[in-house]
User: What shape does this take?
Amino acid sequence: MTQVELAGATGLSPATVSNIVKELVASGTLHSAPSTYSGRRALKVTLPHGLGMVVGVHVSPRHLRVAVSDLNMTVLAERHMPLARDHRADSELDKIAVLITDMLETVDSDLSEVMSIGFAIAAPMDATTGMTARAGIMRGWDGLRIGASLQERVQRPVHVDNSANLSAVAELRSGAARGCRNAVILDIGDGIGAGLVLEGRLFRGSHGIAGEFGHAAVMQDGPRCRCGSRGCLEAVAGAPAVLARIRDEVGSMKLGDLILRGMSGDNTCIRAIADAGHVIGTAAGGLCNVLDPDRVVVTGEFARAGELLLGPMRRAIEAGLIVDVAGEPDIVQGQLGQDAAVSGALALAIESVEIPATA
Assistant: This one.
């Protein structure tokens, strides 16, 4: 960030920020370099290279992403691979440990230089137990202390949070929610989650499980959800439900195929995406009435559909709002794409690091 941005983020005066930065640059804790901000000369402030590295991990029902970065979030290595539908935690944690070691070797490093690991998982996390807060949402990961289990394998500190929360952190820091005091980040793909930014900070709730938007009931006696309830938003408008409804018309396909065919003009796929957007937007309108956000950011794999999804969402949200036009939130696509959660995991890892007073 520039010194001007630091002053805005902290509430300190520019002179105070300047003095603090000078002291920390002199001690080697920070690095500064000339830059520009709003077309004017500025001083950009970063953490110095060489202090160490962090790792970000994102596990969703069908995908695994791992990234290694320095403390400035400069990504040095990254890997992405598909996962089997009913993958098991033990085998995937073994795979993650091997991946991290191999990736570090590609940048001439090893685990001794890793200061922290952030772990994003597509399930609500109970902050008191370190386990998923509801069985069945990530089958194969229930009843496991995820952070402790990976920490045993790599002997480095591991910090775990819900992937929607960490997508929100990433979009707030460097994406489409940057500069917003209040924002809702919707993570839409196989599942549907929400990260809530209130007064410039991520809101996790009393037990760390705020934002379980996808398990709000939207259809009485609707389809069975993986959480065990019926009629959840995710069971109606999540990717598996959308794909199942059009299987007889277009055959079996993945979400990426649905989006590509919709963008190519396939009317069945366009209608399926629009219907999902309408249902999600109707539910999000209620959330906006409660939270009054500046912006709703749509991220996750489904966000790749762009206006095919966002347009119907926007119209449904606007129809459900109780405020006048001036109070409507912006409805925008996330800027970080499918890397949002792993970027948030890197940010979580960095936040947990205690930077030494001297280099």
